[in-house]
Amino acid sequence: MNDQQLLRYSRQIMLPEIEIAGQEKLLASRVMVIGLGGLGSPVALYLAAAGVGHLVLVDHDQVELSNLQRQVAHTTDRIGMNKVESARQAIHALNPDIDVTCISQKLDTVRLGREIDAVDLVLDCTDNFGIRFEVNEACVATGTPLVSGAAIRLEGQVMVYDPQIKDSPCYRCLYQEANEGALNCAETGVAATVVGVIGTIQATEALKLIAGFGESLAGYLLVFDAKTMDWRKLGLSRNPGCLTCGIKGTARL
């Protein structure tokens, strides 16, 4: 690290859990953020601020006026711009030293797997079950850690798949099948701050996994209810019959 970096990250380096060694791991890491909406916005900004050296941003949507209530990486003057490019501008305004790769198109299964295999960690910030299953399967197949978040109305949840932990459950262990009738923000709404809370937790889990400190949420589902300000940390076991990481899934991969 140079003098400017030592100063920029000084408050983080002071932490015994991180120090210079942990900060160098962050700076050397390549992390993918899939979805630059309500969750992906705080995820990308906090990872950039914390010094994650290379961010790969994936989203094929453009910024719309209705996004701005919660998607804090975007601004009014960037309505109509690709979200990944808008997020890139926000990241570089915050920390110009961060390398950013923008992918503003839908990825087929082969390309998705190839891109995930080239990163150290993936954060799923999407709101689509089908995409979540594809991302989860690619992470299991490539042995890439995955931090998955979701938020709707006044509720949110976070879980982690860590291939370094034996029998770490994957996303499909939690949801066996895609729920085509699942709620989404466009139909039921979501509070601006809820996606901020969940996205910030996702970013925190990512920092822990990269720098190698603390205990991650692998093996748990963290559930947040903003209405009552309740947090629940529920144990989650690997499903031996999981179609992705179980016996059948492992054989298929």
Summarize the structure.
With 253 residues, the protein is of the alpha/beta class. The protein contains eleven helices and eight strands. α6 (109-117) crosses α7 (129-142).
Question: Which characteristics define this entry?
Answer:
single chain, 253 residues, alpha/beta, Rossmann fold, eight-stranded mixed sheet, 8 strands, globular
User: How many strands appear in the DSSP assignment?
Assistant: 8
What radius of gyration results from the CA coordinates?
Answer: 17 Å
Q: Mean pLDDT, nearest integer?
A: 94
Beginning-to-end CA distance, first to last residue: 40 Å
| Largest sheet features | 8 strands, mixed
Q: At the third CATH level, what is the topology name?
A: Rossmann fold
Compressed to H and E, one letter per element, the order equals HHHEHEHEHEHEEHHHEEH
Helix content: 25-40%
CATH class: Alpha Beta
| Total individual domains | 1
**Helix/strand/pairing category:** alpha/beta
- Broad shape: globular
Can you say what the CATH homologous superfamily is?
NAD(P)-binding Rossmann-like Domain
**Proportion of residues in β-strands:** 15-25%
What does this structure look like?
With 253 residues, the chain is of the alpha/beta class. The chain has one domain: Rossmann fold (3-Layer(aba) Sandwich), CATH 3.40.50. It is built from 11 helices and 8 strands. An 8-stranded mixed sheet has the order 3-2-1-4-5-6-7-8, sandwiched between helices. The longest helix has 20 residues, at 192-211. The protein is globular. The mean pLDDT is 94.
What is the secondary structure topology, with strand pairs?
Layout: H1 3-8, H2 10-13, H3 19-28, E1 30-34, H4 40-50, E2 54-58, H5 83-94, E3 99-103, H6 109-117, E4 121-124, H7 129-142, E5 146-152, E6 155-161, H8 171-174, H9 185-188, H10 192-211, E7 220-225, E8 230-235, H11 247-252
Parallel strand pairs: 1-2, 1-4, 2-3, 4-5
Antiparallel strand pairs: 5-6, 6-7, 7-8
Helix pairs in contact: 4-5, 4-10, 6-7
